[in-house]
Design goal:
670 residues; Helix Hairpins; OB fold (Dihydrolipoamide Acetyltransferase, E2P); 6 domains; five-stranded mixed β-sheet; globular; binds 2-(butylsulfanyl)adenosine
């Protein structure tokens, strides 16, 4: 085909340009083009690669997401172990470290590099022949987990490096969630009735250690690279400072705050400044790392056990305070979970008045031995919800009371249970008004149907007036009712109605999420919308069919099926239908393309282009079916890399076995 050379030239150009703009945006934080321009170039590249799959390269920006979920992570052996660090907690500790180091170096002068100690998750990235080949966690320092497909989704990690980079090398750094991302993720989890992450470190680790890279890709993870692990076939700069500049020039994101210092006093000064400034940083840091700058000196100094002598972690003081735990309040979430909150005698901690703290569940309260009336240590780190570290035992009077979760729901007085294997207590009353109200609030919220003018207060007022009992009732509200029930002016009422009207066009994924099916978060909403073309199709599915989707476990599958069996939920969906809310996916199926009608596929092995759920979703959109196992009903078995026994079984049964390319041609058509 004589179009191929032209397509090759264009894909090369687009790939380079997109990688460059990705670097400008995610590493330098200084974009040169608009998001729209970026998106349209990406769309063009995607289309070209779809037409000419042979032009797709491993470092194409289209290849960040799309790997299939895994059952478990592989193991990566670190050829040079990932070390930890000794801590310093005071100026005296730092001075002692400096004295010792100086002595070991025969009283030579030495420079240092001061860096924020990022509160995230250590990662080692290996590049071979210019391409990112492995991403691994630290693990026990010697053996980590293979998280390559997940690190590929992080936009500030380059998929390829320039031609003059060493042929093989490893960089190390810290993957983290920026403060805003952490806050949003936790807000979302609370809305979804899932316990929030205790700190950004846990959140980053939880996001990176997802078995499905599609989920990792929705988390706003970032990285700061902080050292070169090893390099082959290259001359390495002689100092840590120059290594950082060098890594930076290869496209890696290093921390812009790192500072070169020459004396102990200078290092202490940097620390004193950072102690106050770090509260305004975009990322969570729990201290300052001081490193000896010369790599020669580093290797002379060596390590004791796992702690190098050439570095120290000088911790920022934790912002803690003590106050009295007055009582524990319990609120009911939309899935019926009982969420305990500590009510504290207000106290100033790090310049902020704290009067409440999270208490995750009863087990947590007992594990920490927190009792009502205790004087407790409260800790606040950055934007994180304050936490109770534990009681001050020496101040116990004996009048403190052990806490038990109520046996009746504080809102509807129905029975409370604690399901096997769950940490949270739950109200069993499906008609619990507190849950019903929370479900309505969830439905209108930003990530769900996004009814901007319908706030929590309005939901409460309409619910209390018994005008809105479920989300479906919102769509029959009139301007007169709003004016009467919520004492609104005509203009505000019109805005509210417009906001409700606008929500009718939300994509299917959001609607699925908005329905508030237990365990179905925003990401699963999207995933299901790709797999099922309408609410009705999802409602008619079975546990088996759902559980055959790799990222969906039996718990989620059962929860979805149970949700659609409840008459109450069916009624809501009917109200939505009557109101004209879009209940179908607005893409392919509505164009009447049902090219794969009557055709059933089975997938085996890893595919390059689509994850398995994506491929299955695509097939479903085109009217076909995907089956989990080979049987006589199957039309084609699509084999990817490292196929399992299904391919052999297909041949035995005389079923056509096709390659991924053949499959792509089939679904992409002409
Ligand atoms: S250097 C000395 N630099 O802290 C060798 N580590 O306690 C250690 N960390 O697992 C690596 N920010 O994940 C280094 N700027 C920084 C760091 C940093 C955070 C983490 C790192 C390591 C842990 C050691």
């Amino acid at each position: 085909m004589d179009d191929l050379p032209r397509a090759r030239e264009r894909t090369d150009f687009l790939r380079k340009a997109l990688n460059h703009h990705n670097y400008r945006y995610h590493v330098l934080d200084s974009p040169e083009i608009s998001d729209q321009d970026y998106d349209s170039m990406l769309a063009e590249l995607k289309a070209l690669e779809q037409e000419y799959p042979q032009l797709t390269t491993p470092d194409s920006p289209t290849q960040r997401v799309g790997a299939a979920p895994v059952e478990a992570f592989g193991v990566v052996q670190h050829s040079i172990p990932l070390l930890s660090m000794a801590n310093a907690f005071s100026a005296d500790n730092l001075a002692a470290w400096w004295q010792r180091t100086s002595g070991l170096l025969g009283d030579q002068d030495f420079d240092m590099v001061c860096e924020p100690k990022i509160d995230g998750l250590a990662v080692a990235l290996t590049y071979e022949n210019r391409l990112l080949t492995t991403g691994a966690t630290r693990g026990d320092g010697y053996r980590g987990e293979d998280i390559t497909q997940n690190v590929r989704t992080i936009r500030s990690i380059p998929l390829s490096v320039p031609g003059d980079a060493p042929p093989r090398f490893e960089v190390r750094g810290e993957i983290y969630l920026p403060k805003t991302g952490f806050k949003q993720l936790n807000e979302r989890r609370l809305q979804e009735g899932i316990p929030p992450f205790a700190n950004p470190r846990n959140a980053a680790a939880g996001s990176v250690r997802q078995l499905d890279p599609a989920i990792t890709s929705t988390r706003p993870l970032d990285i700061f690279v902080y050292s070169l692990g090893w390099a082959e076939g290259a001359i390495i700069p002689g100092t840590h400072w120059d290594v950082m500049k060098w890594l930076n020039s290869m496209g890696f994101k290093t921390n812009p705050l790192i500072t070169l210092t020459h004396t102990l006093a200078e290092s202490q000064n940097v620390y004193d400044r950072w102690v106050t400034e770090h509260k305004d940083w975009q990322f969570e840091a729990d201290g300052m790392v001081v490193k000896v700058n010369s790599l020669q000196m580093q290797s002379e100094l060596g390590a004791i056990g796992r702690e190098p002598r050439w570095a120290i972690a000088y911790k920022f003081p934790a912002v803690q305070g003590t106050t009295k735990l007055e009582r524990i309040d319990v609120s009911v979430g939309r899935t019926g979970t009982l969420n305990p909150t500590a009510v504290l005698t207000p106290v100033q901690i790090g310049g902020v008045t704290i009067s409440q703290a999270t208490l995750h569940n009863e087990e947590d309260i007992h594990r920490k031995d927190i009792r009502i009336g205790d004087t407790v240590i409260v800790q606040r780190a950055g934007d994180v919800i304050p936490e109770i570290v534990g009681p001050v035992l020496s101040l116990r009077t004996g009048a403190e009371q052990v806490y038990h979760m109520p046996s009746l729901c504080p809102e509807c007085h129905f029975e409370v249970i604690k399901p096997e294997g769950e940490a949270q207590h739950r109200c069993v009353n499906a008609a619990c008004p507190a849950q019903a109200l929370e479900r309505i609030k969830h439905f209108v919220s930003r990530d769900a149907m996004d009814m901007k003018k319908v706030g929590e207060k309005l939901c409460e007022a309409l619910f209390k007036a018994e005008r809105v009992g479920d989300a479906g009732d919102l769509y029959s509200l009139t301007s007169a009712e709003l004016m009467l029930l919520n004492h609104m002016g005509e203009k505000s009422a019109t805005n509210v109605l417009a906001s409700i009207e606008g929500s009718k066009q939300r994509p299917l994924g959001r609607l699925i999420f908005a329905l508030g099916i237990p365990h179905v978060g925003r990401e699963y909403g999207e995933l299901l919308a790709g797999r099922y073309s309408s609410i009705d199709a999802l409602g008619a599915t079975s546990v088996e069919e759902l559980a055959a989707i790799p990222s969906i476990g039996p718990k989620i599958a059962e929860s979805i099926v149970a949700f659609f069996q409840l008459p109450r939920n069916r009624e809501i969906i009917e109200k939505l239908r009557t109101a004209g809310v879009t209940l179908e996916s607005t893409t392919e199926t509505s164009t009447g393309q049902r090219r794969l009608d009557g055709i059933t596929f089975v997938f085996t092995g890893r595919m390059e282009k689509y994850t398995r759920p994506e491929a299955e979703a695509r097939v479903a959109q085109l009217g076909g079916k995907a089956a989990p196992d080979v049987s006589r009903k199957v039309t084609y078995v699509v084999v990817g890399d490292e196929p399992g026994s299904k391919a052999a079984r297909a041949t035995k049964l005389g079923i056509r076995v096709i390659s991924e390319d053949e499959f792509l041609r089939m679904i992409e058509g002409d």
